[in-house]
Specification:
Elements lengths: L1 H10 L2 H7 L12 E7 L13 E2 L5 E5 L13 E7 L5 E8 L14 E2 L5 E5 L2 E7 L5 E8 L12 E2 L5 E5 L7 E7 L5 E8 L6 E10 L5 E7 L6 E7 L5 E8 L14 E2 L5 E6 L2 E8 L5 E8 L2 H4 L1 E3 L4 E2 L5 E7 L3 H4 L4 E7 L5 E8 L13 E3 L5 E5 L10 E6 L1
Antiparallel strand pairs: 1-29, 2-3, 3-4, 4-5, 6-7, 7-8, 8-9, 10-11, 11-12, 12-13, 14-15, 15-16, 16-17, 18-19, 19-20, 20-21, 22-24, 23-24, 24-25, 25-26, 27-28, 28-29
Length: 402
């Protein structure tokens, strides 16, 4: 049986393989291309864990958790820039190398820009700012050090309209915190703990950062709950500067999944979208009158078919399609399940259709994407893989176009 399956994998289109396994998978093959635009080689960083961000000129920025040009022996990580060049090629510049110790190491979240073009991100126990000088070099400023009582930041950062930064730590206080950092006239930043977990409704260990709605409420995912399967919380600002926490949804582990793990994204109607783990689902939460929320499962993954363990924030395109990646699963790697890139398309009646855009194969094109993808103005998708991309598998930055 094993020999027959291997022969089938080698000789049949993915659609046929999926039917042989008893799973219906919609796979986009014609016109879809995946290209590694940069394979990491340790000296330019290795094992990117965070997502990408682009500037107005089309350059891409991200982090690697290990490696670095000068300090690769310390494996402290780097911040990189990828710039498009002629002939569809890209060139990498390591704009900052971490040396560990007081300046931090192993950056892990997705970077954010301020209005002046400065870059902000998180590394182990620090939140840093990178500022570009007149000579083109970047310098680091630690704007906050998280002590042992706060834990380490564990997700993406979020701006408000006043220039304050928001994020989460999974272990601060008793069971995690949501924090705000506010810039001061003297160049320092002041931290304000908006909420300390565990909550009265049982949630704790917030993950992946927070997201704002149009009314100034914050939303995030957390573990805990009375059934231990996690949920989604809302933080609402009060007139006295404090915030009130509410559990808007607790996962049951049934058709709605369990353990939410991504930063939430909102559409123009205030609906929330995110992912759960093992094998994973993509869900939508819609607000109703009276403060209640309805959960809708948009897609459930099947590990050895269309993905396993979706991770990283989802991304919308201009027509309302959702894009994301799964770290494991799929039919790539000769059944080794190196993850997939997918699209979810809304249909009439509220259903969503999944299309597999790419199945990762490890050495050539990357393996285990962990941070989702971003969409540029031309509809091209960009993301990172933790491994793959060469003989030693230090990770990749990839582009998908169709």
């Amino acid at each position: 049986m094993k020999k027959q399956l291997l022969e089938l994998l080698e000789s049949r289109p993915v659609q046929v393989i999926a039917l042989a396994l008893g799973v219906l998978v919609n796979v986009a093959t014609a016109g879809v291309t995946e290209k590694v635009i940069f394979p990491f080689n340790q000296t330019g960083g290795s094992q990117p864990l965070g997502g990408l961000v682009s500037d107005g000129a089309g350059n891409l920025y991200g982090t690697t958790s290990l490696g670095g040009l000068k300090n690769r022996n310390y494996a402290a990580g780097a911040v990189f820039e990828l710039s498009p060049a002629s002939g569809g090629t890209w060139s990498e510049t390591v704009i900052y190398e971490f040396r560990g110790g007081t300046e931090g190491q192993s950056p892990n979240g997705t970077l954010v820009f301020d209005k002046q073009g400065n870059i902000y991100g998180t590394a182990q126990h620090v939140l840093f700012e990178l500022t570009k000088g007149t000579n083109g070099t970047w310098s680091e400023n630690i704007i906050h050090r998280f002590d042992s009582n706060e834990g380490a930041p564990n997700g993406d950062l979020t701006w408000d309209s006043a220039g304050n930064l928001y994020g989460t730590t999974p272990q601060g206080g008793l069971d995690g915190e949501v924090f705000e950092l506010s810039p001061q006239p003297n160049g320092t930043w002041t931290e304000h703990i908006l909420y300390s977990f565990p909550s009265s409704f049982g949630l704790g260990s917030p993950v992946a950062g927070v997201a704002f709605d149009s009314k100034g409420n914050l939303y995030g995912a957390a573990g805990g709950s009375s059934n231990g399967l996690g949920g989604i919380y809302q933080l609402s600002p009060q007139g006295n500067g404090e915030w009130t926490a509410t559990a808007i949804y607790i996962f049951t582990g049934g058709s709605d999944g369990r353990f939410p793990n991504s930063r939430l994204v909102l559409d123009s109607n205030g609906n929330l979208f995110g992912t759960t783990t093992a094998p994973g689902e993509v869900f939508e939460l819609s607000p109703f009158s009276g403060g209640t929320w309805k959960e809708t499962t948009l897609h459930t993954f099947t590990a050895q078919s269309d993905g396993d363990y979706p991770q990283g924030a989802l991304a919308f395109d201009s027509t309302g399609n959702l894009y994301g990646t799964t770290t494991f699963g799929g039919l790539g790697c000769n059944g080794g399940m190196c993850g997939i890139a997918y699209r979810l398309t809304p249909q009439a009646g509220g259903a969503w259709t999944e299309t597999i855009l790419h199945q990762f194969e490890s050495a050539g094109d990357g393996s285990q994407p962990q941070a989702g993808m971003i969409v540029d103005n031309a509809g091209h998708l960009f993301g990172t893989t933790k491994y793959g991309g060469g003989r030693y598998g230090y990770g990749t930055v990839f582009e998908i176009s169709y």
